Amino acid sequence: MNMRKTNRFWQTLALFTAIVSFGLFTQQNPKVFAKTLTVGTSNTFEPYEIEDKNGGYEDGNNGFEMDLFKEIMQNTGMKYDIKIMSFNAQIQSVQSGQLDLMINGMSVTEERKEKFDFTDSFYDAGAALAVNKKSKINSLKDLKGKNIGVKVGTTGAEYAQSINKKYGFKIKYFNESNPMWQDVENGGIDGSIDEEVVLRYGIRNGLDLKIVTKPADTMPIAIAVKKGHNQEFLKKFNAELAKMKESGRLQEIIDQYLGDNANIKTDTASERTIFGLIKKNGPLLGNAILETLKISIIGILTATIFGVLLGVLGIQRGKILPGIASTIIYLFRGLPMMVLAFFIYIGLPDVIGQKIPLGVAAIITLTLNEGSYIGAFVKGGFQSVDIGQWEASRSLGLSYQRTLWKVIAPQGIKFMIPSFLNQFIITVKDTSILSAIGLMELTQTGSVIIAKNMEGFNVWAIIAVIYLIIITSLTWLSKLVERKIR
Questions:
Q1: Which residue, 37, 129, 260, 356, could crosslink 213 as a Cys pair with Cβ 3.0–4.6 Å?
Q2: pTM for this structure?
């Protein structure tokens, strides 16, 4: 590398460092009220939140907590943007500042008050034990030696932890309620401890379970924000909530879902078949396919740029640049993608004081993870070219860089093509991991559909077939491209 290009490299690195440093030291004022609030919620906590046919909350009848929130936001003129993710991820995202608040039937406990501020309560709820309808378990005393499911981070999980030694059962943790309930139905676990009102609603909506205990550890339910943040929202929300309590409007909203005459819409038998599910959820599945492909294409393009850069740095003369490339490849190839996604989307904003949009976090995750693998085989592709090619080119007077790009790269690319195409296929499958941070790709969409009809087997069969069709098409296309280039 000549002196001019060396200087250019270090100038670029210095500029990048300056930009990152600026982001680290220019943090937002956490107490300034945002015009558009970023709101976290779950897709599997009915009747608090019930998604519409498009996987959002735009239609009516979105659950009593969501309906209450939407009505208050409309009355006060406050704007919001909803993000869907697991309960545990919501808690971490509020703490990091990635979310302004979370709406997920959150119980107000003394421990949570240390980390969160809450709105005034609008409902009281407690945990209960639910088992398969055919189960012989009738009380907590029958749980000795049994496996009981709980949802991570919930008061139901805390309640189970407080009594499991007394009653001698083992705890299995889940991120969402629906997989846990299905595990009970299928006999994988013996029961689940979850919020009683949620279990009761699910049973009325076709969940094949029965509740065998009364609600325990009843606690107030409220909306949470980070401690000391979004105080203007709390003030406006509480003022409007007080009006709704006084007028009886709050009770009307709750009775719509939990009253004796509550109108619960359930899917018909034909709508629960595979073809019925496809017909009813066609637009949602179509959007999920497009989102999966969009993220995959953008991700593989940025990962390729990043990976090629790492590969080129890895074969430079000297030890510094190859050492940097090797370290980056080792670091991001060694981290599980889910850990990396949580770090970027939930952990990093807490450090830089800036929110990272979900799509941007997803692309960065794919770029770093997939790019590290690409960097490894790009480096290997260049190194696979016979050493004699280097020696012959240099003996003819070509510089190191001209030899690399004019002689070595064209030959090395042929060795890399199969790996590039294979990595694209891997990237498509890896997007499913990003559902953990709420990306509405195919896997997350499957969870949304299941939350509305409890048809786990049929829905996952549909999702699996869609993935197989996409991967088969890409495999066929990659072989065609490989034959054309070679």
A1: 129
A2: 0.67
